Amino acid sequence: MRLSPSDAWAFFRILLIFNAMGCIHSIRCKPRSFRESIIVLEVNSSIDSNPTSIDESSNVVLRYRTPHFRASARVLVPPVAAKEVWTVGWIQACNHMEFYNKYGDNGMSSWELPDLRDCKTQAISDSDGVNYPWYGNTTETCTVAGPTKRDTRFTVSMNDNFYPSVTWGVPVCNSNEPQLSSIRRDQSFTTWLVAINRATAETLVLQTVRWRMRLHIQIDPDKPLGQRARLLEPVTQEQPQILGRNETIPPNAMVKPNANDAQVLMWRPKSGDPVVVIPPKY
């Protein structure tokens, strides 16, 4: 079949375009890399609207449960030509922690992260302590192994909340006499949606979320059990921020120790030297 002059010129222009795109050997271009092709379709993040609940059922400890922070992302990975394995999921780090339990005029106990407290690091990993650097390894991650011939779609999700126990009595005494008078907590976290190449450790930050959990509980230790504690603030937590520009992950957020293993319980009397009640596990 012979082409007319106009058709021949059109075909020649198409060849020039593909030549400019670097596809001179084939009309079909090279597949894009994982870095170029991964698409975050949707990201959602919230903190439940219910207030912190207080449990006074024990005569040894007060327990409270904060609302849940939740994050989820829908991700699409087009066909991967290379023989690569990537894990996509959530990584979290604590970058601020105040956790004070006051015992009237006696002093206070506090859970502390020494390196964070002393400004030796920007953040401490909040991994589950097993699957570093991931927050978890169930709904929190998904692994894509190339080569693949079809699109891969998946959702990764995580949730976090606090459910601690605080002794009614001064933690350095053997007595359970109730003296706990207030609890204050203020913690901040950064949570990243990340893709990591399992072979090369190449790390792509896909989304960054910041969130904070605060509370102030007032306690009257002279009242009967079940009537002592009252949540002062906040009734509703401020909602997380999904950042428009991603933040890099500090090195400490990727490695041991995690926050649970690094924290220490201190007793800080009104007068006298501080005492380590529970040392760090790591």
Topology:
Layout: H1 5-20, H2 34-37, E1 39-47, E2 53-55, E3 61-65, E4 69-77, E5 85-103, E6 107-112, H3 114-117, E7 124-125, E8 141-145, E9 152-160, E10 165-167, E11 182-197, E12 203-219, E13 229-233, E14 241-242, H4 259-262, E15 264-269, E16 275-278
Antiparallel strand pairs: 1-4, 2-3, 3-10, 4-9, 5-6, 5-7, 5-8, 5-11, 6-15, 11-12, 12-13, 12-14, 15-16
Low-confidence region ranges: 15-30
Helix content: under 10%
Query: Rg from C-alpha positions?
Result: 27 Å
SS strand fraction: 35-45%
Specify the number of helices: 4
Q: Describe the sheet with the most strands.
A: 10 strands, antiparallel
- Count of spatially separate domains: 2
Question: How are helices and strands ordered from N to C?
Answer: HHEEEEEEHEEEEEEEEHEE
| Secondary structure tally: strands | 16
For the termini, the CA-CA separation is 77 Å
Class derived from helix and strand content: mainly beta
Q: What is the residue-mean pLDDT, rounded to a whole number? A: 90
Shape: elongated
